[in-house]
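BUG: 3D viewer hangs when loading the predicted structure for this chain

Environment: internal workstation, default settings.
Expected: structure renders.
Actual: progress bar stalls at 90%.

Input used:
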Amino acid sequence: MSLRMQLWLIFLAPVLLIAGLYAFGLTIPVPHLGRDYVVRLLLPGAGNPLDLPDVLGPPDNSRPLVVIDAGHGGKDPGASGAGFREKEIVLGLAIALRDQLIEEGGIRVALTRDDDTFLVLEERPEIARRLNADLFISIHADSSGEVSGVSGASIYTLAEEASSESAARFAERENNADNVNGVVLEGRSQEVNDLLVELSQRRVQQTSAEFAQLITREGEGVLKFHPQRRRQAELAVLRAPDVPAVLYESGYITNPSDAQRLASAEGRAAFAETMARAIRIYFARQAGE
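Structure tokens produced before the viewer hung:
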């Protein structure tokens, strides 16, 4: 054994011994203090269920359900600029949309967060899936970095390449699930399930694009859009293969005009009324089909 290896063993052996005793909750005597101490490390159990938010609105499960996701939160403030933080602006928009939908009635609503809570990125679309949502809307505010003069909202849907990759990963992970988007998977071969999930994802992407188009149509002349208002990207928050989803970049928080508008009561109202109208038209079309 080399001298270097011997030195490593001399230094690591006590650490490994103590760590092993801690892991098994064994007593460690400390003679000079005249007492024993027990150190236990409590770890969360595997597979703890995800806390689901309350569903508000009519107590009728046949009514469509929208899950609204205010991006960032808690220790993740998101972008900042003009004296505003993204996590606070988008939460205000999400709550305004929730209240608008509840006031108009007929649609159930849930927020992934209604306070300054931190959520892991993957938890957000999973909440929509677990609630069997019919539509998922993630709200953010963009940053232009050092570029000045950039403003306006954009609507993102999942890129086609990312959609196919997401479907493949989901099929592998959820091969034993009961169903995806109403398609029964249980008892089928993995090859068949892969194909069914891929087809489900394509359908979801089509309806997501239809909803994005409705936002731009209903927001014309009301909301301020970026010149490139429709975009596609490989965004993790849009990767649920069985819930139509869009990410709405409400504007540029680094642009003082955008930030002040989005933080104002008038700006929140314009957003909520426009988005609620697009949501109702979307569900009316889906019911007609």
